[in-house]
Amino acid sequence: MTATEDKLDRVAEILRSGPRVAALTGSGISAESGIPTFRGKDGLWRQFRAEELATPGAFARDPRLVWEWYDWRRGIIGGCRPNRGHRVLANWEKRFPGFVLITQNVDGLHRRAGSERVLELHGNIWEMRCPAEGTVTENRESPLPELPPRCPRCGTALRPNVVWFGESLPAETLQGAYAASAACGLMFVVGTSAFVQPAASLPLLAAERGARIVEINPDITALTEAADFSFREKAGEILPQIDARLDGGAAQ
Asked: Are 143 and 183 in the same domain?
């Protein structure tokens, strides 16, 4: 038995013991579905960087430009599909009472995989919010017929229902994430650098309250040393192997 197989068996054994389970996911699990990172040197769009477009000020100056970028992103994301990691987490929601999924991703892939109890810390790119009325609607049209899209009731330019640079996370969603982290006995931290706050503090809170931490990430992160179990592989490979062991199956 390899060291990885031993760790997989031990994590599965803990899961079978019935702890309250939470999962925190980041861009890594989406990258496995082919969704590119929209920040940094590989995230350029025209001559703009994400930090120049994903702000309230940019939207106030040129809502059409901001929406052109989001419409382009929606087109890319719409062509991607949930992977095996997404599907395992969706199944665990049904299997483990009290399971909570917390994600930093805005692509909606967890919901498409079947997850329902999802706390989307940074919002959802498939939702639009009216700045005047505060109403939120889902819209999966791609490409959008009008840029910027407008509120059918008041005519105000709608904005993507995502958290932009300089904005606070939704208070209710963040409160739910803190509560789930504090209450869990086992937390999976999947495909996230564990660097961006306040999400990075959630596994530390869980650990302080006695939870075991399972990190799944091809790269070493700021959380690695604090994790009880750390897998240097992709979620789509590790999560199905853990899942197979829950019923005594072999790794797949």
From this structure: no
